[in-house]
Amino acid sequence: MEIKINKSTLSLVEGDITKQDTEAIVNAANKTLRGGGGVDGAIHRAGGPTILEECIKIGHCETGEAVITTGGNLKAKYVVHTVGPVYRDGLHNEPKLLQNAYRNCLQLASSKGIRSIAFPSISTGAYGYPLEEAAGIALKTVITYLKEHSDIEVVRFVLFGQKALEVYERKLKTVTGNG
To answer: For this structure, is 151 an active site residue?
Structure first.
């Protein structure tokens, strides 16, 4: 599924984020930037040791913030690492922190002249953020950013599994008033 927002294209696909041909992919990292499970582990395995070496030099990343490294052995030239919130109950600033994670990735990409970026569904794996709620925050944040900035031409959400894709498709229709 794909929609146009000004000159930009926002698309939703099911797939493997490590195989994306966008200029940058986003890693749902942990604060230590040392790799881990899920998306984080997959990106570090596919990208090779260069990414970890750069992450070690950077040191850490706070929740809601974003840092950038090269893409190592990935098709993507860059990896934007962001730390999403661990979901407790939605009453501990989790929505704002998740919104910040997406926005800071986009701002960092813009500042580096990156024209295409692929996101996973941040915080919805091991960090336990409810998929429905996280999808709404992710899509609203990206759409708002693209309405205000025309420098990023492609934003792709690469979702793990058919269920996640369906949730994002449904949310996208709701957020854009088409559903």
So the answer is: no
